[in-house]
Amino acid sequence: MKIVIIGSVAAGTSVAAKARRNDETAEIVVFEAAEDISYSVCGMPYFLGGEVESVDELIPRDAEWFKKRFDIDIYTNHHVKAIHPSAKEIEVYNKEEGTGFRESFDKLILATGSYSISPAPFNINTYDNVFHVKSMEDTKAIDYYMKNNDVRNVTVIGSGFIGLEMTEQLSHRGLSISIVELADQVFPKIDKDMSVHLRKELLKQGVDLYLNDKVIEADGEQKVSILKTEKGVQLQSDMVVLAVGVRPNTFLTVDTDIELGQTGAVKVNEFMETSVKDVFAVGDVAESFHRVTGKPSYHPLGSTANKMGRIAGDHITGGKLSFTGTLGTGIARLFDLTVGYTGLSETEAEAAGFDPVVVHNIKPSHAQYLGGQNMVIRAVADRETGRLLGAQIVGPEGVDKRIDVFATAITFNADAEELFEIDLAYAPPFSTTKDPVIYTGMVLENARERLPLMTPEELIIKQNSGEKIQVVDVRSSKQYEKNHVNNAVSIPMPTLRKGAGELDKSVPTVVYCNKGVTSNTAQNLLLNIGFKEVYVLSGGNTNFHYYKEI
């Protein structure tokens, strides 16, 4: 059996390695259009920022290593121009020799990845100082340009993963950074009331933000010097980083019977098989599906690419592995903050037909007497079944392990109340007695059953519409005087039993404290003495004022 793989980064090399582990007799050939293989795309910003000393550290293996270890033939600088599945042949162009040839196959794997989007006006002209951060060639070009030019002001277009990571790393080099983002928030992958924390961090670090705006004009011939935005902002730019997203590289499927899915990526089944026999697709070029909804999704991540590659290599050589979907879990560091997310957002849950219940949980990552700092957790569950649907976390520490626990729970269809049952490790340097994950499950289940929450957004909408509602601040009088929720009355928790007589039991009531713990006690008290409808303000006064900063 002859296995031909087009592409040799995360997915392609994973196919080859797994196929060889399963089958010593197969002939395995890989064609790569670029010079480098099996490199770390995710590590590129950290080399450009100086955290990684040498670019060679991002390229741990070369073609010779694969040949010696696995007896796999990898041909770099070989561009595949066309595929002919019915004839079981591909057309290859040797870039170094300037010659072309045809190669036959028994099994063909498309691991062609994705390509970066070049929005207008950057799709019109080629500029020496405008870069993507997608390939090793891009990274080397940026590094060379910064070393040989006077770069002081950098404009980053887009605030997704690459945009934020490049902003952080180039700031570490002492450069002045401006971000232009088409959306009205930073990092559009998460909910707006969570992205406000990232915006504050960027501003704290001296980054200039231009949200809900776009570049419409680039002045300069060979190099961009001034960028003009739709809102009339003029940005002096010595270098521009385009980070507005990627699209699946499906060009080889044109004029074939290979079907594309709803997302525009190649449609595959659980074994990475395309609609054409003996042709597979893996990594960024392939469509996946969401583990919660079962619907097609596109999550071009290195972790997903490695899984897909392993599954395809296993299936081709008689194995039983299959793809079970993705949650789109992601994480990024932004200066002193970490942001992580998994599963569905509230909006996505609604679109998928769920009735979402949302909670905000603000808790320290470990004991505060040992320096634990607060994380903000936004979690979503299905109101009817209690099924955990998604979570987002922003905080200075402890985000990574919590988002992984949430992702694990969602993967195994856990209910919110089952989070309480997880036996997580506890010691004061590492967690709190009720870990933030456990506490989130408790609050979600309470909110789903008989102790509802109201988000700051919902409360403000109700107040602005003139709906009759009473808001009670159960913190101390001093805390109330410092700042409080709009139109709230102060009845500190120790006096609530007596002070409740001042309230109307028939009017919907919202209680709040700083972050939500004391207000839960207040909610139970009011319900037990006959109040008809009592809500806890999700995330308390702290989260309310976070939301007001949006």
UniProtKB/TrEMBL annotation:
PROSITE patterns: RHODANESE_3. The keyword Zinc does not apply. Keywords: FAD, Flavoprotein, Oxidation, Oxidoreductase, Redox-active center. This is NADPH-dependent 2,4-dienoyl-CoA reductase/sulfur reductase-like enzyme. It comes from the Bacteria. Residues 465-550 form the Rhodanese domain. Gene3D superfamilies: FAD/NAD(P)-binding domain, Rhodanese-like domain. SMART domains: RHOD (SM00450). The keyword Flavoprotein applies. Pfam families: Pyr_redox_2, Pyr_redox_dim, Rhodanese. One of its GO terms (molecular function) is oxidoreductase activity. InterPro entries: FAD-bd_OxRdtase, FAD/NAD-bd_sf, FAD/NAD-binding_dom, FAD/NAD-linked_Rdtase_dimer_sf, Pyr_nucl-diS_OxRdtase_dimer, Rhodanese-like_dom, Rhodanese-like_dom_sf. Belongs to the class-III pyridine nucleotide-disulfide oxidoreductase family. Signal peptide: none annotated. Its cofactor is FAD.
